[in-house]
Amino acid sequence: MSFLGRLNDGLWALVPFILTILLVLGGIARWPLPDPVSIPPEFGLIAVFYWGLHRPVVFPLIAVFAIGLVQDLLGGDPIGLNALVFLFTFTAVRANRELFEDRPFFIEWGGFLLAAAGAGCAVWLMMSALAGTFIEPDRAVARFILDIAVYPIFALIFGMIRRGMTD
Amino acid sequence: MKVWLQRAAFLILVSVAVGFVLISYKEKALVEGLRTSATDAFAPVLDAVSAPIEAVSEMVGSVHEMAVLRDENARLRIENERLLKWEAVARRLESENRAFRSMLNFVPQQAFRYISARVIADSSGAFVRSMVLDAGARDGIKKGQAAISGEGLVGRVSEVGDNTSRILLVTDLNSRIPVRLEAGRDNGMLAGDNTDRPSLIYLPATARLVVGDRIVTSGDGAVFPPGLAVGTVLAAEDGVIRVQPLVNWNRLEYVRVIDLDPTGIVGRNSRQSSIRVE
Fold first, then answer.
1. Are residues B34 and B132 in the same domain?
2. Does the pTM of the predicted model rise above 0.90?
């Protein structure tokens, strides 16, 4: 392969990570919209699930950790919390890729539903344990529903990027 | 070999993440510097990312405003009339107050300086309610200061970087604000619980409150100036008194941070409290 070809592949491989960081920043930026729409989706989790399923090679573990850490640092969550959840989600999805291969999209969507539910419950439990009190889960549930609703849109966008990459 | 390396990397990164979580829980001061540095570094990017979101929101808002312009005009005319009457009452009370105070040799509460800042990030997710401002220590912002909007109290400064600062909203789980019932003068504490309606706790058993009563800061602890509007009593559900904050969180673009040089529970020497005039 020519130098330009390799450069092109290298740049394409960086796109998922850069796009995810931008999406995470977008999720933290001000969304002057009424509730519950003002709660932005968990962009990091959506990206980690999608790329862990379809092209884990473009998302090394250190990149997954970095995405979670950026979200924790800027979002105000306890540092390391989302990094931890993203690492477990990514590893679990990558280990079960064959369950979703060559299956209809709704199977993948169902998989994301399970992953988002698991990740949401884990964060809720950890936050409640750290706070030493029961935290109302209303906003977490609203975010979970939003995540499920927007997943197909992001799967479509990520799919277009994936098709731009060579195997 | 590759699988073994991946497992080792996973275990190392998980251990680091768990370590971070424990440190950020036990030693908040240690991670605060890390967080403020990261926020400072990412501030220009956050600013740039929020610009298109705000532009779209403003566009939607403009279209909506056009649709309700006529009704809004009529409502504002009535409100203006009502406020003019209140202005007359306020002026009379002010002059009366001035006269009474001079008779009593009352030491007046001095004015303070405001620092206006723009909200560049709203990390009000599922479990944390905070906002990031584009002003920090260089602009005179200090930890513990109160942040207000035109409507009422927004929260307090919880972290300060060189160019940015984080406001812990009154609705956050960790927020505790000393407040007072404006009518009854009973003191209590406004406790956030991550819902949009914080609760009112530690009110005396004899306190009488009515739905719609205004809640203001009490000034206890000398962290916040007394009398800042906070919210109104909404309802009592299962023995929990809920308060509706006056601030419209979704339209919060700018806030004013009150430079009172906090002296209370944030641990400054009370003799250093220099109050500057706006």
1. no
2. no
Q: What is the mean pLDDT of residues B46-57?
A: 79
10 Å Cβ neighbour count for B275?
A: 14
A68 → chain B, closest CA residue: B17
Q: Which residues of B touch A133 (CB under 8 A)?
A: 173
**Chain segment A26-72, per-residue pLDDT in tens:** 888 877 665 555 678 899 999 999 999 998 988 899 999 999 999 99
- Which residues on B lie below 8 Å from A124 (Cβ)? 126-127
Q: Would you say residue A84 has pLDDT above 80?
A: yes
Say yes or no: A160 contacts chain B, CB-CB below 8 A.
no
- DSSP assignment string, B15-45: HHHHHHHHHHHH-HHHHHHHHHHHHHHHHHH
What ipTM, to 2 d.p.?
A: 0.87
Domain boundaries, chain A: 3-164
A79 DSSP assignment: T
Q: Which CATH number covers residue B252?
A: 2.40.10.340
- Are B137 and B176 members of one domain? yes
A residues 64-103 closer than 8 Å to B (CB): 65, 68-70, 72-81, 83-84, 87-88, 91
Mean residue pLDDT of chain A comes to: 88
Indicate the CATH number for domain A3-164: 1.10.1760
DSSP A100-144: TTTS-HHHHHHHHHHHHHHHHHHHHHHHHHHHTSPPP-HHHHHHH
Q: Does residue B213 share a domain with residue B122? A: yes
Domains in chain B, number? 3
Q: Are residues B58 and B90 in the same domain?
A: no
Instruction: Mark whether B205 and B82 lie in a shared domain.
Output: no
Nearest-angstrom CA–CA distance, B250 and B254: 11
B165 touching A (Cβ < 8 Å): no
- B contacts of A140 (beta carbons < 8 Å): 126-127
Q: Which domain holds residue B12?
A: 2-63
